[in-house]
Structure of Diaminopimelate decarboxylase:
Amino acid sequence: MSTNKPTHAPLMHFPVQDGSLHIGGIAVTRLAQRVGRTPFYAYDRSALTSRVKDLRSALPNDIRIHYSVKANPMPALVQHMTSLVDGLDVASAGELKTALDTGIPAGQISFAGPGKTDAELTQAIAAGAVIHLESAREVDAVNRIGQSLGLRPSVMLRVNPDFELKSSGMKMGGGPRQFGVDAELAPALLRRIEQLDLDWHGLHIFSGSQNLNAHAIAEAQDKTFELALRLTEDASRAPRLLNIGGGFGIPYFVGEKSLDLHPIGDMLSRWLPRVQAQLDQVKVALELGRYLVGEAGVYVTRVVDRKISRGQVFLVTDGGMHHHLAASGNLGQVIRKNYPVAIANRMQKTQREVLSIVGPLCTPLDMLADRQELPPAQIGDLVVVFQSGAYGLSASPSAFLSHPPAVEVLV
Ligand SMILES: *Cc1c(COP(=O)(O)O)cnc(C)c1O
């Protein structure tokens, strides 16, 4: 391969020994035997641990880190994450159950998301979780349900900011949004919350997701703190918590680079003493999903056929878009690009051929790699899709085509 051709970002989490990729210290071929079948997802416990450790060392000490369960709700993984982070963010009653099952104190669980039903709110209030209020209806519903249960609900107000997170893969704030209440309407709702029997914890301001531009993230954090100070100016007491969102991205595609945490660390170091002085030692939390877990996971699938169609080599595997919609390019991508992939049992082969890797579904959308240079692969080989620890299985249409579901293991 030519040396200056753009490539995928280096994947440093997983060692190679004797030509085989190792996940969680186990050769993938051996792991496949242990799991008993393919396809499966494997998440590397030590990669999760060192990720959070590295992140903490790049940020000011007292920044809290919350894990967004929707990125990967596998119970064993969520359990492991609770030993590393300061809180869990959930977005449904199902995720709330997963979070509560870990034994984390309910006060460290926050429940956000539009359209929370009375049934979900009742469960969250009964559990003692912190509810992120996202509309005037939710303010009144939480108050009414709290009274009927004889409980004083813990709440945050989620604010749709009056700015956007630039160069974000997914914008979730700024302009008209279904998330949170517009910043312009927040002061009136904060006054309303104060009048009710609600235990107000603070503000939640989330502006976007999958961002690899550290300066854009730092700039959004700067504006987030400004907005939080403005909104809390005439509150009768200071907030206890500012959840300033996250949006930290990971490199998926050729040419993308890992996020540089320095500008973010600098911005947080500058702001933290200032908001803590002005807001009575307020705590500041980041909520992150894919940044914490995305790089620690792989999807493993086995080659079941090798075909040549008009000169193009196709590997047909037993897994595909029904387990990994994102790698197939169908989860929010405009132009399809390849995730980083490898042939896990041929890591040291220097010979290359151009391969397309497809799944078993009867649709051309079921593609895991389009004309990628890889070692020549045969039936029985194991294809690994990297960067698969977040928005993998739970974000995929598993029932599509009625193939068996994928297994998930934490190793
Ligand atoms: C989805 C979501 C997250 C996590 O986003 P990532 O890109 O996985 O970090 C964080 N906060 C909120 C409110 C979300 O909806």
